[in-house]
Amino acid sequence: MNRNLLEIENLRKYFPMTAGVFRRKVGEVKAVERVSLSIKQGETLGLVGESGCGKTTTGRLILRLIEPTAGKIFFEGKNIFELNSHDMRKLRREIQIIFQDPFSSLHPRMRVHDIIGEPIRFHRMMDSTQKINRRVDELLEVVGLSPAYRNRYPHEFSGGQRQRIGIARGLAVNPKFIVCDEPVSALDVSIQAQVLNLMEDLQEQFNLTYLFIAHDLSVVRHTSMRIAVMYLGNIVEIADSDELFERPMHPYSEALLSAVPIPDPTVERRQILLEGDVPSPANPPSGCHFHPRCKYAVDRCRSEIPPLRAMKKGIEGHQAACHRADELELQSGKPLEVV
Ligand code: SF4
């Protein structure tokens, strides 16, 4: 069993809301609340939820692009929020990000060899231009692009090719962990599979660990070994990928799954349409934050926050934050029917 590379404990991030000339604090947006999870070396964890649920903020906290309100993130056993500047610089090499939008994440006036070579120069990994150029050519080949493209600008490439350049830039400093922030959602469906396959090959080749952020469960199903479902700043369910698809315990996961197309015309699945919008994280509902949209909500759900906890009848590691999960467990561990 691989060791945990990353562990998140009770992570919170509240952004202040200000008003008036003096920017007086009038409230806070609870972007991330009580998030705890761990990711093993070589694993891909999918983090899924609607926009604004806190998944990108969680990714930015892991990269330490922002500071948390509370909580800890351990990378190889060290709390990243307590690192000194020397260790932090080292960490910036070990954790990289692949951005969602390959159109805006590459500098339009930089040539490909400068884009990919920049992190190598910044971290002083190589001292001669020749060595850097050789490394850039090698990286272009690794991501399936010809080294002959090295002098081109980003606008001369297609969306899929630009994302490959973004991946090459991420790999340039030999990272151990990559936050993939919706890496294929801006690409045509026909290109998405190619980029996902490439990322899978690279994971094997370089023993990479991924946090794969997506709003679409069908994208993470085949890339992720485990999936965490996030709603309004909280993890509401986490399980092995197949287990989650076969037996979702949380009504929100159930609704997300019902929207995933099944590639079999003989299987009928009715989509569960959630009523209402996602509530504001500045004023989340009491108790279970999902209760205003949940068709199973009872009184207890309006007052009591359901903790994320292991399911007795679920496969090991299956956790859900739902009072109704108690009842489901008593039903002989049958798969929850998606109606
Ligand atoms: Fe629905 Fe209650 Fe479960 Fe929340 S705790 S998801 S409101 S049944």
What does this structure look like?
With 339 residues, the chain is α/β, with parallel strands linked by helices. The protein has a domain at 248-339. 31% of the residues lie in helices and 23% in strands. The chain contains eleven helices and twelve strands. The chain has helices spanning 55-62, 85-94, 112-122, 129-142, 159-171, 189-206, 217-221, 241-246, 251-258, 299-303, 324-330; strands at 4-19, 24-40, 44-48, 70-75, 78-79, 95-98, 177-181, 209-214, 226-231, 234-240, 309-310, 319-320. It has an eight-stranded mixed sheet. The protein has a four-stranded antiparallel sheet with strand order 2-1-4-5. Strand 9 and strand 10 (234-240) form a beta hairpin. Helix 3 (112-122) runs parallel beside helix 5 (159-171), helix 4 (129-142) packs across helix 5 (159-171) and helix 5 packs parallel to helix 6 (189-206). Bound molecules: iron/sulfur cluster (SF4). The site of iron/sulfur cluster has 13 residues, from loops.
Salient structural properties:
339 residues, alpha/beta, eight-stranded mixed beta sheet, four-stranded antiparallel beta sheet, 11 helices, 31% helix, 23% strand, globular, disordered C terminus, binds iron/sulfur cluster
